[in-house]
Write a structure and sequence with these properties.
globular, 151 residues, 51% strand, alpha+beta, six-stranded antiparallel barrel, 2 helices
Length: 151
Amino acid sequence: MNEIKVAENKTLKLTNVVARRIAPEELGNMMVALTQLQNFIKSHNAQPIGPLVQAIKIGPAPEHAPELYLMQQATQLITQTEPGYEVDAVLRVKNCLYAHYTGPMAYSQLASSKLQILAFEKDLKLSGDTYTIFVNQDDDDAVIDVFMETK
């Protein structure tokens, strides 16, 4: 069954998060970047756990281009980082609009659209930071959670 459930004032909480910034020239090779992220985690005696998280962060100034990050939780905190990687013991993003999408992967962007409409209707200001959690990525039956931070 296709559906998008929404909620307000939700908190995204991730632990032992490893993030890798994706440069614009890498967008065509996302699977390579994902493999590099998971290999980075494994090379530090940890294992990737949980679903993949994609974060889009908007800089403080409007002229800055959005930055794309791939994030993965690890079984333990990685204390040594390398250029291009960031580590958070706990990533907590409060006051988010939340959507739980179930349906074909091709239509998953509708979850973000529905949250933007909700923000518009309720006169909520979005920070521009969006976190998409790929719970299940089957083409016909994807399950995706979207968190959009509000100001």
